[in-house]
């Protein structure tokens, strides 16, 4: 079959940087043990020109009802017409790299705000993660703070979860402990970490609560469940979660031992000055 001139201009979707990044990120998260079975999900806001370079924007494979849009406080209008690449519901991160067309989908939020239009992927009849409404609430919240925010990641990092069971779930105390564990922590997430109590997952309530926290934080802990991270890129967002997880690991390795040394709050201030970090939660420091 002869391709049209328009088709010849498009690249191979399997070579698209955004697709390759999604595959690499999912594989790394599974390798690190953050996303067992079908645990965890990723959504990545794409620019129209990025998608148009690989897909026909007029070719909608199917329309999928968007769960959660009838929730009273869920106004999706800021995202209408936006494009996302999203992990699929029930899909295992370990399989993403080997079969991205089944485990991922490129979608557009439909004009009616009630559906999504599938442009590529979910070839087995699948749909986006059941947490996609919560992701979108967080995207909307973060875009108000930072118009360059493009990524939301939810995962179950082992040590961060373990820390939930033995540490007070107080944002200031939880953040301060993490800042004490690694010299880089206060520089990487100077705004701290938001913390939510245990809540039923997959509901509009937890999505709304997370989005509210995302107005202040790029990282939100779901107690006894996992963590939400948001950032400008997959690398940045992965790195945020990775840094929290490393700090939590050090805490879990040392929490039962007498602490002889620690990073002092005055030293944290020196770090902030050195790296010219002006926005940070001073109220989370004991000065």
Folded structure, characterized:
This protein is α+β, with helices and mostly antiparallel strands and 287 residues long. The chain folds into 2 domains: 9-128, L-fuculose-1-phosphate Aldolase (3-Layer(aba) Sandwich); 131-287, 3-Layer(aba) Sandwich (L-fuculose-1-phosphate Aldolase). The protein is built from 11 helices and 9 strands. It has helices at 5-8, 17-31, 48-52, 100-103, 132-145, 158-166, 171-181, 185-188, 204-214, 234-254, 265-274; strands at 41-46, 62-65, 83-87, 104-109, 115-121, 151-155, 194-196, 219-222, 226-231. A 9-stranded mixed β-sheet has the order 2-5-4-3-1-6-9-8-7, with helices on both faces. α5 (132-145) runs parallel beside α9 (204-214), α6 packs across α10 (234-254) and α7 (171-181) crosses α10. The longest helix is centred in the last third of the chain and has 21 residues, at 234-254. The radius of gyration is 20 Å and the shape is elongated. The model is unreliable at 1-5 (pLDDT under 50).
């Amino acid at each position: 079959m002869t391709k049209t001139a328009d088709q010849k201009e498009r690249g191979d979707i399997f070579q698209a940087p955004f697709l390759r990044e999604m595959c690499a990120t999912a594989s790394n998260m599974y390798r690190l043990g953050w996303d067992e079975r079908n645990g965890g999900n990723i959504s990545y806001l794409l620019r129209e020109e990025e998608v148009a370079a690989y897909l026909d924007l007029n070719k909608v494979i199917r329309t999928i009802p968007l769960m959660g849009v009838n929730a009273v406080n869920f106004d999706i209008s800021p995202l209408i017409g936006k494009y996302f690449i999203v992990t699929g519901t029930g899909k295992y991160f370990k399989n993403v790299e080997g079969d991205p067309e089944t485990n991922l989908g490129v979608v557009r939020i439909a004009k009616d705000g009630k559906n999504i239009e599938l442009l590529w992927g979910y070839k087995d009849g699948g749909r986006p993660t059941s947490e996609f409404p919560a992701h979108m609430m967080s995207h909307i919240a973060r875009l108000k703070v930072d118009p360059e925010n493009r990524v939301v990641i939810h995962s179950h990092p082992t040590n961060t979860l373990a820390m939930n069971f033995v540490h007070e779930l107080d944002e200031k105390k939880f953040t301060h402990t993490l800042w004490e564990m690694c010299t880089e922590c206060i520089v990487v997430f100077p705004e701290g970490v938001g913390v939510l109590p245990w809540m039923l997952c997959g509901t509009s309530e937890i999505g709304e609560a997370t989005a509210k926290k995302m107005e202040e934080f790029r990282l939100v802990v779901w107690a006894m469940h996992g963590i939400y991270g948001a950032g400008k890129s997959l690398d940045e967002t992965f790195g945020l979660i990775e840094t929290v997880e490393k700090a939590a690991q050090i805490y879990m390795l040392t929490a039962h031992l007498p602490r002889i040394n620690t990073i002092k709050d005055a030293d944290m201030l020196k770090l902030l000055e050195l790296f010219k970090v002006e926005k940070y939660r001073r109220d989370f420091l004991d000065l």
